[in-house]
Amino acid sequence: MAAVRMSGEDRREQIIQVAAKLFARQGFKGTTTKQIAQMADITDALVFRYFETKENLYAAIIENKMQELSAWDLSDIQTSMDLRDDTVVFESTALIMFKEMHRDPTLMRLLLFSALEDRALSDMFFTHQMIDLVRMLGQYIQRRMDEDAFDTADPMIAARGFIGMINHQVLMRELFRHEAYVQYDGQDIASAYTRLFLEGIGKRQVGIEKSITSTEEE
Questions:
Q1: What domain range includes position 48?
Q2: For 159-209, how does the pLDDT look when each residue is reduced to its tens digit (9 = 90+)?
Q3: Of 1, 89, 111, 160, which residue is most buried, by most CB within 10 angstroms?
Q4: Are residues 118 and 209 in the same domain?
């Protein structure tokens, strides 16, 4: 087998990308270094030259994915929070989740295999990326409740509820490719779920007063 010549950095990155795809398809336990080498068109020995063990390779994938996740651009969300633009806050949150999961289709599979195999990637993802996002939304919801814009609720449960709706959409669209989910544009889904969420948590006193007035008039 004659491996294509690459710089050391490029070869290392190639092995990481190939291994990530196989781990996402077959899991860590179901993937061998021989399969990684074959898919990369190199020898087993070359894999071990860069990564002493499969665990070392997995650790490199974690580091690679965490660097990508830390690069999520949350500036639009933060700007909208400063402006108290509730619709854009939640739509932007949904859209960045759709965008990033679609950009890296291996991530969802890696996370699921990682959780099933009790490996580190899913724990790091949910401990850092998702908790940070939920906390940011929860703090915003608390602020809007303090400003009497939202009804009283547990802000963290509310934030998890919104993220949960979007995660379900991502799972059905990117992993299962269910036709009932992929037929809708990401912006349409983000808008629909944002509207449902804000109608649920928004202040409803005006609507109640109108209903009481209408009943009295009758």
A1: 8-61
A2: 999 999 999 999 898 888 888 888 898 999 999 999 999 999 987 644 433
A3: 89
A4: yes
